[in-house]
Amino acid sequence: MNPLLPHLPAVLLALTTFFIAVVSPGPANLATIGTSMTAGRKAGISMALGTVSTSFFWGSVAAIGLGSLLLQYAVAITVLKILGGVYLLWLALKSFRSAARQSHLQSKQVLLRSSLTKYYLQGVAIHITNPKPVFGWLATMALGVTENAPLSVYIVLVAGGTLLSLIINISYAVSFSTNTVTQLYDRFHHWFETIFGLMFTVAGLKLLASAKQT
Prior knowledge:
Mean pLDDT: 81
Number of domains: 1
Strand content: under 5%
Radius of gyration: 18 Å
Distance between the termini: 45 Å
Structural class: mainly alpha
Oligomer: single chain
Shape: globular
Helix content: over 70%
């Protein structure tokens, strides 16, 4: 009998919960959406890959138990929240400045697509400074790892969660870089950038506010 089978219901519940957490709007997929619309598909995919890489890192950390140790040190979580909040507010400022300028989408795409590494690193930075993935992965492990769970359960949870993250984030990047959405963005440039700025501001302030409570 496959040692994984008795644990399969818990694993499926954990991955379903993880899926809902990843697909819901948050700083990482919001940044991917905005980048895909303003800088093109390749830039959006690069940022998405940065997010997925960091998600895999946090999943691995949670699987080997270091996440539980991290939670014991409130200072580490506080620093993460402060860094994440400041970074999101910086993204908000960029969006507001962009909203105040005339949209030159085509020439902008040619310029931005030449620096795909920058977008990958931005995806990493957004996700590495956001404590939400840490708690998300710890919750996933708590749901999926039952008593006497074999190593295969941990592997399936990390691999499955990473695959879900990849599919969801790449889907966001591709969907929001189509010609229809690009033209829509070009037409309502000021509104889109203002909305992005407001959402980044709210997310950043929430992180900073939560840092005071830890």
